Amino acid sequence: MTATAGTESDTTSDGMKLTLKIWRQANPETPGAMHTFHLEGVSPDMSFLEMLDVLNEQLNAEGEEPIAFDSDCREGICGMCGLMINGQAHGPEVTTTCQLHMRTFSDGDEITIEPWRADAFPVLKDLCVDRSSFDRIIQQGGYVSVNTGSAPEAHSIQVPKDAADRAFDVATCIGCGACVAACPNGSASLFMGAKITHLGELPQGQAERDARVVNMVGQHDHEGFGGCTNIGECTAACPKEIPLDVISQLNKDLRTAMRHGH
Amino acid sequence: MSHPPRPSGFRSGDTVACVATPTLIKGSRSTRSTIALKLLMAVTGLVFIGYVLLHMYGNLKVFAGQEAFDEYAHHLRTFGEPMLPYGGLLWTVRVVLLLSIVGHAYAAFALWARAGRARTQKYVVRKAVASTLSSKMMRWGGVALLLFVIFHLLHFTTQTVHPGGVTESPYERVVNSFAPEYWYLTVIYLLAMVALAMHLRHGVWSASQTLGLTNSAASRTRANLAGVFLAVVIAGGFALVPLSILLGLVD
Amino acid sequence: MTEFTSDVDSHPDSPGQDSDDAVGYYVPGEPIADTKAPGGPISERWNTRKFEARLVNPANRRKLSVIMVGTGLAGASAAATLGEAGYVVKSFCYQDSPRRAHSIAAQGGINAAKNYKEDGDSVHRLFYDTVKGGDYRSRESNVYRLAEVSTNIIDQCVAQGVPFAREYGGLLDNRSFGGVQVSRTFYARGQTGQQLLIGAYQALERQVNAGTVTTYTRHEMLELIVVDGKARGIIARDMVTGEIETHLADVVVLASGGYGNVFYLSTNAMGCNVTATWRAHRKGAYMANPCYTQIHPTCIPVSGTHQSKLTLMSESLRNDGRIWVPKNKADCTKDPRDIPEEDRDYYLERIYPSFGNLVPRDIASRQAKNMCDEGRGVGPEVEGVRRGVYLDFADAIGRLGRDAVEDKYGNLFDMYARITGEDPYQVPMRIYPAVHYVMGGLWVDYDLQSTIPGLFVTGEANFSDHGANRLGASALMQGLADGYFVLPHTIRDYLADGPFEAVDPSHPAVVEARRSVEDRIEHFMTVQGTRSVDSYHRELGNIMWEYCGMERTEDGLKKAIDLIRGLRDDFWRNVKVLGSAATLNQSLEKAGRVADFFELGELMCIDALNRRESCGGHFRGESQTEDGEALRHDDQFAYVAAWEFAMDEGLGAQKPVLHKEDLTYTAIEMKQRSYK
């Protein structure tokens, strides 16, 4: 391999041709609109975000500001990326946007790309949204209060394997916000339920269980997320396949807390 | 949108009251949450399910003939006498139902409005992949059912609407109303039963989920099956009566 | 404990005389030494230091402020712990949430000397394995401490609710990882990094609620503020509003991760960058061993120049997969299933009969490159070369059955299939090495303090614990050790001098730092050249990968330095950044990072040029055995190369000053490794 300039793309004219309809918005205050772009030479081996990279290179060359979109690890774990693609959160496959590949699409396709839409996720620019409301929900109790150094020996508490496995399964949530984006009510119940269930399954999470659910739900409501109507769009869009059970668990924990007078 | 104000940097030595995020809410109460609203909806929904089950059971008395049906209707009013006054149980049930419907509708409209505020900028393209038709119809279907209930009360209880004529016999009211010449009434009632079936199908599942009874894949399947079962049994049981009258099986 | 003395003690280096290759590229400087590690038996040093480090009265802690840059394992854990202690902490990250830091992507696990398996593990053995794995280029005291506190990490994480894998009895499960003979790796399926980071993130958010920590997300540190020789704050850009902010504090901690993205393609996240550490380096913090790069052998190969990042697959695949390339170049384009057994070259099994496909990462990586350089690589041709080798599970599927293979590796096979569109149960996987981790970083003493007083460095951003090569499952261990258990103790010795005099925001040093940031941004916004930032980054990456990648030579490195300098000059004149600086502008963000990568790349090449030996992840073509194996030169290079930033105005380029820290081993004997 020689050190050659990387300005030219390896994509050839026989790649896919796409029509892209993309939301552009200059900043949080200015209203946005859909814009249409044409892109040629898209390789089926590209990831969806690499396709947008190529579009951005093209825009940059044409003197138009590249489209802002979030991504970081690009291996499906950090939760930074997230686009509404043809009306589906993360697109037509059960994965993150960064792991969606262009072979899912066909030559000549028209693809509509929008940011996550929820008033609790305000658009910052183009396809980037502010999900700090998720952090604030976690701040309200999505943790076990244990100061560094005060932990007992790890083997002093046994955890049944089933509980540990279930805790892990729901702890795989990456906080991407697809559940909110897909929910007709703009609810973050799946996100919250995943954390409630994760910590609720473990002995370590019991002491704060009532306060945790009440405070997290209180913050959720305060942020302006909608209520859950148990439709299931969230779990269908979740790249980590968090099941609806967690919302049931969330409801149950809240009911228990209510009984305990919280 | 407004950004939370960001501290512009502090000097060392200052004792800065570090307000982490100005929008962190304190003193949340379980009873004031969206989930409390959902619980209200679930519990009142269960009241309705119990009621429509009994109501349907009573309706099926039509097949036992006029005497049995009218006797049943009368007995509802004398139930519990002399401990209760005449109509005492009926009025108790009516009060409970009225309170339930107020609670159910209040929760529904509050959550509906909330959902609207949660996404003021709509998607240009949106594709639902997991929603059942029943779940999509919950809100407007619920409104339709509310209107139907009002109509139903005007029709059979107050007899304000009386296509088949005013009569003392509940049996005659039923049979006259669903006679073939008033076919549109039958259509209204059958459509209402379709709406009821859909409302029950999602409602039963949803209430189970809201009450926290579906913490596993198996229990979720059971709750969904229960929804379908109750929808078919209740709406089907109700629909039998007008259909039988229309077809001349009951007269 | 037996104490050994290595032969380097009797042959102290004199600066500049032994490394002829880099003459003219650097200036010899005074030796440097870690003055903080106490003497005495190695097992007592940390206890001694913890005792000697002065305490801060709890009432005074809220008068002391800490800036933490980065929210990965090392940053989030330290911010949470310092917040719990009562200090006023500001935590910065460029991502939209602290939970997204790239520690999250670590798959395998975390080592700890718990010896739950009673298989002979101990603190000393973990220490020994780590020093040996690092090819005797790490600092003994630091590594011992790392092994010592490893057990506390597991306790802490379990108490936080980290869902580690458990056995049926409800106790924690362990596995053997990275070629060691004991089972000391704790794991949470293939997502250990995620679970540990979420634990640290939750601890951090708890402190936000408690009011001790303020988080600044979507903020990027662009300059360090040094006042009267001490680190006193940072200049950061609010990446949403574009506002340039001055943040002052009593102490600054960099936990900003590694710089593998200097290679453009790496397994790092898109945003990983060197800017925080490089700005500190330019302000006087020494950069140690920048050329030590770990290249991971089992990544999914590049499919085209559109490629934006590389994806790692767990090394465990080498337990059952067999690595091969065609014997004949002509077969490289054939369907691999049609290539008969006798025409396949299972080169690792051929060259290393005893270790076979399980040779260490650096060897497996280098041999894959050799095969491709010979023209026997497979897969798509990218820029004229096929860069991939087969990792074949046909034998394993035949022997164990498809179900057993699916049980063990199903998620990895799925990931491979998703990215490549090929079914690895049918067609052999293609793999190729990729940059994964950097062992080099800012020089720190035993207290994790850099050469700038008041500037501490933790996690991958520092250099101290992994020597020239990092063992599997020890990055997570180091990040959390630094953040939870080391820094909170060592930093108090520095803070005990406080309360400090407040720095006035109008202090010339603050104003200057701010102005330099604004000037740089102004420059990028006004150049309006012709090439995108990414195109420069990609070209820099190509240079680094070609000449400062798996095999480095004197000629190649010198050529690379010339190429980098030329490209850097062109970048400053011809880069094209559109949009406005007063809004979210990803091109602008990248421009600043790439500008620093250019300077780092240059220093990496100079460091690699100076180190004419092969050790760990650093392989010099000139220093190998007759069999082509890495050859260390302990007599000349048993030192940490700590570089001080310096510009040569005439040259218009860096001419750094080399300070050597001799490495001495008192608890361990230096050995040359062999995997034949």
Automatic annotation (TrEMBL), chain C:
NCBIfam families: PRK07573.1, sdhA_Bsu
Catalytic activity: a quinone + succinate = fumarate + a quinol
Residues annotated as domain FAD-dependent oxidoreductase 2 FAD-binding: 66-476
The organism's place on the tree of life at top rank: Bacteria
Cellular localisation: Cell membrane
InterPro entries: FAD-dep_OxRdtase_2_FAD-bd (IPR003953), FAD/NAD-bd_sf (IPR036188), Fum_R/Succ_DH_flav-like_C_sf (IPR037099), Fum_Rdtase/Succ_DH_flav-like_C (IPR015939), SdhA/FrdA/AprA (IPR030664), Succ_DH/Fum_Rdt_flav_su (IPR011280), Succ_DH/fumarate_Rdtase_cat_sf (IPR027477)
Topological type in the membrane: Peripheral membrane protein
Protein family per UniProt: Belongs to the FAD-dependent oxidoreductase 2 family. FRD/SDH subfamily.
Entry GO MF terms: electron transfer activity; flavin adenine dinucleotide binding; steroid dehydrogenase activity, acting on the CH-CH group of donors; succinate dehydrogenase (quinone) activity
This protein's name: succinate dehydrogenase
UniProt-annotated catalytic positions: R361
EC id: 1.3.5.1
Main subcellular location of this protein, as a coarse class: membrane
Keywords: Cell membrane, Electron transport, FAD, Flavoprotein, Membrane, Oxidoreductase, Transport
UniProt entry tagged with the keyword Flavoprotein: yes
UniProt GO BP: anaerobic respiration
Protein's UniProt keywords contain Membrane: yes
GO cellular component, one term: plasma membrane
Boundaries of every Fumarate reductase/succinate dehydrogenase flavoprotein-like C-terminal domain copy: 537-675
Cofactors (names): FAD
Span list, region Disordered: 1-44
Class of this enzyme: oxidoreductase
